[in-house]
Each structure stands twice: as C-alpha cells, then as structure tokens.
Amino acid sequence: MLVSLAALLIAASLALPHRAALDRARPELAIAVWGAALVLRAALALGAAVFAFRFMPATDLFGALTHWCWHTALPGLSTHLGLNGHAVGDIAVLIPIAVLAFSLLTVGHGLVRASRAVTRFVRRTAVGPGPEGSVIVGQPGVLVAAAGLTRPRIIVSPLALAVLDEPELQVSLEHERGHVVRRHRYVLLSAEILRALGRVVPGSRHAVREIQFHLERDADRWALARGGDRLALASAICKAAELRCATSPALTALSGSSVTTRVRELMDGDRDRNDRGHLLLASWLTGLALVFVALLPAAALSPASAAVIVEHCPF
C-alpha cells in the first residue's frame, strides 16, 4: 500500500509541470521546475537499476527465473549458449545498468560530435570580424547565434547584417551575449545528460525542449534589461525564424524554441503575475528530487540481498 501511494505521488508530481501554465512564469523558475523534473526522472531510472542489481535477486520472480529448467524449455539454446539459471539471473540483473550506460554513452557521443561540428563550421566558414566582437560566417539566411561549448563566440551571417536594422542587430547580439554570460550551454548540457539517464521515464525529451524554450526567454529578458527594444527583438526573431537551427549546448540561435510564443510575449509586454504557485511547484519538485538523489547511495550501499540458491534441475 505504501509503495503504491509513493508511486502515485511521484507520477502526480511528474505530471504537474505539464499541466502548469509556465509560459509566462519567470524563466528561472520555469527552468528550475523542468530541471528538477529531469533530476527526478534520472533518479528514478538509477533507482530502478540499483533495485535490479541489489534487491531483485531476493524477489520471487528472480527465484523463479533462476530455478527454471532452461535446458528443458530451450534445449537448443541452452546447449549452444550455455544457458542456465545463473547466466539468466546475471543477465537480468545487469540489463538495466547496461541500458543506462548505453543511453549515456550515445548521448555523450552525440554531444561531442555536435560540439566538434559547430567548431569546424565556424572555423571553415568564418569570413572576418563582425560588430561587437562577433564573427561573420558564410551562412545563407538570417543567422545570429552563440556557437561553441568551451569557448563560445557570437556568429552572424552576411544576410543578418543586411536585413536587420541597427536596433534589431544590437538587441540580437545582446540576446546571444545573454546565452554566453549566463552559461546557458552548461544548463543544456546538464539537461541532455539527465535526459540520457532518465530516457526510460516518459516526458524526458519534452522537459529538455521546455528548458530550451525558457532559456531563450531568459536571453530575451537579458537583452531587454540592457536597453534593448522589445519590438526590435520581436522583429529580429521573426526575420531569423526562416532559418531554424537545432538547439544544442554548442549552438543557441536567435530563432530558437517556440518563436510564436516568444514574439507574443514580447509584443504583450510585462504583465502583473503571481509566481507563488510556480515557486511552490519548483520547491516541491526540487525537494522531492533531492530526497531521491540522497536515497540512491544508501540503497546502493545497503547490505546485499539474500543470496539466491540456484537448484539444479533433475535430468
């Protein structure tokens, strides 16, 4: 009963961000909500792997699996592959860990490849220095972006310099500078790693997309706080919207996530809002995620479960 209630509480907590109206919440609060949801998903996946490794051998299901007469049920496979209760039990215990490791390796490999591809792109297409320390790259379309993971640089395309007027270009560069100064690339990198760990829990990919969206909103606010004009920024986003670049830790473009929603918010201006509910949601999810993360070492270091004796089947 207690386990069922805990599972229901966790499921309801994970569903809350999807039901909450976070589009107009303060970006940092929305990022905290979705970040905590990702941490909780990753902790659940790791907890499942720890359970399989430490506690599953003491369950009745595992006992039935290892006591089954595999050489009788699958004589061909058991003969050629050496299939027996011990081997099946070992495989069953290690599968969750192997799945998490494979997911983490594939996502990590993809991030490294994307970062190197962006670095090569900037190096290969660089034309010369641009305004305010940016780099002009030979890219068709209206492109203003922060490129690079370890040493990010702001890049602009020739068409962006041609079609954006001075206020639009100024606020666009400030937007990308906001990504760099506020280290949004590391937030995205952490989100991708957490998604890799929590991939088996539904909603992980959506949580990353929401974090990308609210990071764009945060960069918008950074640009406006430094004297940028909101209408100029909205216009620049619309002009850059035709060239949609895939957002990654190594590349954040002006035409990033949810262009329509961002432009509508810029056009509407700041409105009075009550963020108390969003703050409570962020606090609840953060606390719940921290509890689960704190429990993981205790579960992993707990005394090993009772050994399972594999009985040999009679011939």
Report the count of strand segments: 5
Biggest sheet, open or closed, and with what strands and sense?
Answer: 5 strands, mixed
Query: What percent of residues adopt helix (DSSP H or I)?
Result: 55-70%
Report the order of strands and helices.
HHHHHHEEEEHHHHHEHH
User: What class, by secondary structure content?
Assistant: mainly alpha
Q: Look at the structure and give the mean pLDDT.
A: 84
Number of helices: 13
- Radius of gyration, rounded? 25 Å
User: How many individual domains?
Assistant: 1
**Order of strands in the sheet with the most strands?**
1-2-4-3-5
Coarse morphology: globular
Distance between the termini: 42 Å
Q: Low-confidence stretches at least 5 residues in length (pLDDT < 50)? A: 305-312
Strand coverage percent? 5-15%
Entry summary:
The protein is mostly helical and 315 residues long. It is 67% helix and 6% strand.
Keywords:
five-stranded mixed sheet; 5 strands; globular; mainly alpha; 67% helix; 315 residues
Describe this structure in words.
The protein is mainly alpha-helical and 315 residues long. The chain has one domain (41-271). Helix content is 67%, strand content 6%. It has 13 helices and 5 strands. The chain has helices at residues 2-19, 27-54, 60-67, 70-73, 75-81, 85-125, 158-163, 166-181, 184-197, 204-225, 230-240, 259-268, 276-300; strands at residues 126-129, 135-137, 144-147, 153-156, 251-253. The relative contact order is 0.16.
